[in-house]
Write a structure and sequence with these properties.
The protein is of the alpha/beta class. The protein has one domain: Zn peptidases (Aminopeptidase), CATH 3.40.630. The chain contains eleven helices and 17 strands. The strands form five sheets. It has an eight-stranded mixed β-sheet with strand order 1-2-4-3-12-15-13-14, with helices on both faces. Strand 10 and strand 11 form a beta hairpin. Helix 4 runs parallel beside helix 5 and helix 5 crosses helix 11. The longest helix is centred in the last third of the chain and has 21 residues. Bound molecules: zinc ion. The site of zinc ion has 5 residues, from loops. Belongs to the peptidase M14 family. Its cofactor is Zn(2+). It comes from Natronobacterium gregoryi (strain ATCC 43098 / DSM 3393 / CCM 3738 / CIP 104747 / IAM 13177 / JCM 8860 / NBRC 102187 / NCIMB 2189 / SP2). This is Carboxypeptidase. GO terms for molecular function: metallocarboxypeptidase activity; zinc ion binding.
């Protein structure tokens, strides 16, 4: 029902459900080649992250190899008009939706997903057979292409460097929302470009169109939108103003996932006991059934501020199991990388403009937030491939486990609450969840 409403409201008729043949994808890319010449003007620096053009080329090469992977463009970024790609694989009963790099300066999952796609395409093994036969994968390897290519003159020497930004590139337009949303930034890192944080722009109502729903939606002077939904008051809702979030929402509802995963990076969090940097932080999204265990539970506060009222017990349980499983898989893979043992978890707090909290309830998807350390704009961000590997192991192990046992009943959910809460630089803000210093937060 919700899915149909959204599809109708965004004009899904032009949204083909069949895979685009590789030849059409090539033609589509060629049409936008006038965009791509601009890459030549950018100093790419020594960083290993792929440009949008390079990512598109790699995906097309994989899609051409055989029919195990279907590739299509599901939208374009607001500023650069670069493609947002969707990869589909498998024909199983359990649907899994994964988005990566919704914050453009959080690139590690991209290379990890490419390496998984390569295995799915090239490898004949029990693992690959099991994934392709039991799962239907919908994976969006880079949903914020603007942010991925963001560049600026960091050193002031007149030369731009590729820095990445959390935001897309899009000017606020008063004809679309009554107030400038709090997640709009009018001066991105070392540049005069403006944009929105897409992971604050989601809205739980499939039919929501900003400016057409004045009542009961309310904006305050800080650009925060409060909305009533199914008997709950949701604060700091997204206004769904970005084309990226519209494309992700369509893809999600069409995939109708049982599991959903969003891959991020954060500043360097620490293990609260040792003080050492942690390789990842996970976060399950859960509802009233597990609200008692929510670290920021406040009996005087509304449920919607510390748990997700719209996630049922079965979905909550599967989400907790999934997040536990990934942490344990990394533990077991530690080998020479002892920091893989240092998984931590976010204390769950709802964020009503995020992928996880707004989309998961619509299809009973068990959600997972996957936070690797270090954003690309940070000076001194190190060990790129260690983080790529942490993403690759976590995603692949969880796909393998869901393929074998869709309920993940072999994972003990109590283990989740033994994972240490992450320490470090973040402070918890009751209205906005975790916020980083200077607003460059996480999730
Ligand atoms: Zn992020």
């Amino acid at each position: 029902m919700d899915r149909r409403t959204f599809m109708k409201s965004v004009g899904a008729a032009s949204f083909a459900t069949v895979a685009v043949p590789a030849a059409s994808v090539r033609a589509e890319a060629a049409v936008s080649s006038d965009v791509h010449h601009r890459y030549d003007e950018i100093e790419l620096g020594a960083g290993p992250t792929l440009t949008n053009e390079q990512l598109g080329e790699r995906l097309m090469l994989l899609a051409e190899k055989n029919d195990r992977i279907n590739l299509r463009q599901i939208g374009a970024s607001a500023g650069r008009k670069d493609p947002i790609w969707e990869v589909k694989a498998g024909s199983g009963d359990t649907s899994v939706h994964i988005i990566n790099q919704i914050h453009g300066d959080e690139p590690y999952g991209t290379e990890a997903l490419l390496s998984i796609f390569r295995r799915l395409v090239d490898e004949d093994s029990e693992l690959v057979d099991s994934i392709l036969n039991n799962l239907s994968l919908t994976i969006l390897p880079r949903v914020n292409p603007d942010g991925a290519m963001h560049h600026g003159d960091l050193s002031g020497d007149g030369n731009d460097q590729r820095l990445g930004s959390r935001e897309n590139q899009q000017e606020w337009d008063s004809s679309y929302s009554h107030e400038t949303p709090y997640y709009y930034n009018d001066s991105l890192h070392a540049s005069d470009v403006s944009g929105y944080d897409p992971n604050r722009d989601f809205n739980i109502r499939p039919d929501f169109i900003s400016k057409f729903h004045d009542d009961p939606e309310q904006w305050n002077d800080d650009g925060e939108l409060t909305m009533e939904y199914k008997g709950h008051t949701l604060e700091t809702c997204g206004a769904r103003l970005t084309p990226e979030v519209n494309a992700i929402t369509r893809s999600f509802l069409e995939a109708d996932p049982d599991y959903a995963k969003t891959i991020h990076s954060q500043n360097i969090p620490t293990d609260p006991d040792s003080g050492d940097p942690t390789i990842l932080s996970v976060m399950a999204s859960y509802g009233p059934s597990h609200a008692e265990k929510a670290p920021f539970r406040d009996e005087d506060a509304p449920l919607a501020s510390y748990a997700n009222p719209f996630i049922d017990e079965d979905t909550s349980t599967r989400s907790i199991r999934l997040n536990t499983l990934v942490t344990q898989a990394l533990d077991e893979t530690a080998g020479p990388w002892s920091t893989y043992e240092t998984g931590t978890r976010f204390g769950y707090a709802s964020l009503w403009g995020s992928y996880l909290d707004t989309l998961c309830p619509l299809t009973n998807a068990a959600g997972m937030l996957y936070e690797l350390p270090g954003q690309s704009g940070q000076v001194g961000t190190r060990a790129y491939y260690k983080k790529v590997e942490a993403a690759r192991v976590g995603v692949l192990e969880s796909l393998a486990a869901i393929a074998e046992n869709p309920s993940l009943s072999h994972v003990d959910e109590d283990d989740y609450f033994d994972i240490p809460l992450k320490g470090g630089q973040y402070e918890y803000d009751a209205s906005r969840g975790y916020q980083g210093r200077g607003g460059a937060g996480t999730r």
